[in-house]
Specification:
Layout: E1 14-22, E2 25-32, E3 40-50, H1 54-59, E4 91-98, E5 110-113, E6 120-124, E7 129-130, H2 137-140, H3 143-156, E8 163-167, H4 171-180, E9 187-191, H5 195-203, E10 208-210, H6 217-224, E11 234-239, H7 246-253, E12 254-262, H8 278-281, E13 285-288, H9 304-318, E14 324-329, H10 333-342, E15 349-353
Parallel strand pairs: 8-9, 8-11, 9-10, 11-12, 12-13, 14-15
Antiparallel strand pairs: 1-2, 3-4, 3-6, 3-15, 4-5, 5-7
Helix pairs in contact: 3-4, 3-9
């Protein structure tokens, strides 16, 4: 039912919320929302994006129990990873009602929020990001992922003519590829095991993409980097596969003094990494990249808002809605999560949908 009556009056204050209840299990619950506070807005969600990285760690039970969820997001203040957990951070919706102390101009605005998967929610104005009128919902829902990609590029600090390799071409990897394709690099190549993702990487500007299993892979990859140095390796490597074992691959393809930017969060996944050979002798640098903070080297000029505005601008340029492969209604969230977990070869971005907010 429509929660908004004439003149923006709220007749119903219910929401449908997705909860992770145990490894490989979720539930969609009907919940009553409290009355709108004087400084709050009521948002009706239109779509939300499921993260195939962190969110899949929650779904598959690979979260470090007790770790704070994200201290930088108000919706998770004080929360720690534990079941049951309402989790998610990429929601696009429309403001349908406003508290008495909020400017009524908010009503009707399309907004992005770092919120769990919910059909309706209450938020303060400064927790919402107004969306440009010409940015479609299905591009805007990638804002969190695009901000991560922007942060990865900032942390990598690519230089003119550098040879760059990306490991993993899921959504984050593909968006990072799309951003790097605008740089005047010497080479931009990627490793990805699934054919559909390799094709998407080429479409977004990668010069060459391999699975790593090709008989002539080593020769072709070395040839791609022959201009950087006699060692035939990369200047900059991004590890975005979500697989800690790929750190050895990153080390193998990083040249002398090269940087490896680790954007994956592995949760409780672990692997034995060889740091006793090339890594040590070749003075390779490992850099952790995490979007909740800004590297101190940039913070004198960059704020979180500036980085977010840059990501918004990049959404219009990249148009990432082309990466959506599946859409599920919120009630079918279990199927949506199983699609990501069980069929990665055919899956990129999966959305949950809620029906259109009233116009």
């Amino acid at each position: 039912p429509d929660p908004v009556g004439p003149a923006g009056r709220v007749d119903i204050m219910n929401t449908r919320s997705l909860y992770y209840t145990a490894p490989l299990k979720c539930a969609v619950r009907d919940e009553a929302l409290p009355a709108i506070g004087p400084e709050q807005l009521l948002v009706a969600a239109r779509c939300s994006a499921i993260s195939a990285g962190t969110e899949m760690l929650v779904f598959t039970g690979r979260i470090p129990v007790g770790l704070p969820v994200d201290a930088t997001l108000p919706s998770y203040a004080g929360q720690r990873f534990a079941y049951p957990l309402a989790y998610g951070y990429s929601s696009v919706g429309k403001v349908v009602a406003a508290g008495a102390q909020v400017h009524p101009g908010w009503i009707g605005q399309r907004v992005f929020a770092f919120r769990p998967h919910q059909s309706h929610y209450l938020a303060l104005a400064d927790e919402l990001i107004r969306l440009p009128p010409d940015l479609p919902d299905e591009d805007a829902v990638f804002l969190a992922s695009m901000e991560t990609a922007v942060n990865l590029v900032m942390d990598g600090r690519p230089l003119l003519g550098e040879q760059v390799m990306l490991l993993g071409q899921g959504v984050i990897g593909l968006l990072t590829t799309a951003l790097l394709a605008h740089y005047p690099l010497g080479a931009l190549v990627a490793l990805e095991r699934w054919p559909a993702r390799r094709q998407a990487a080429r479409d977004l500007g990668a010069g060459a993409v391999w699975s790593g299993a090709e008989p002539d892979f080593d020769r072709k990859a070395a040839a791609a980097f022959e201009r950087s140095d006699a060692d035939g390796r990369a200047d900059l490597v991004f590890e975005l596969s979500g697989r800690p074992s790929m750190l050895d691959t990153a080390i193998a393809w990083a040249g002398f003094g090269a940087r490896i930017v680790v954007g994956s969060w592995y949760g409780t996944k672990a692997a034995t990494i060889d740091l006793g050979g090339r890594f040590h002798r070749q003075r390779i640098r490992l850099v952790a990249s995490q979007v909740s903070t800004i590297d101190p080297i940039h913070s004198a000029r960059w704020t979180a808002r500036r980085r977010l505005d840059t990501a918004l601008a990049m959404l219009a340029r990249v148009q990432p809605s082309r990466l959506i492969t599946h859409r599920f209604a919120i009630d079918d969230a279990q199927w949506a999560l199983e699609q990501i977990a069980d069929r990665p070869q055919e899956t990129l971005q999966v959305l949950l949908t809620y029906g259109a907010a009233p116009d």
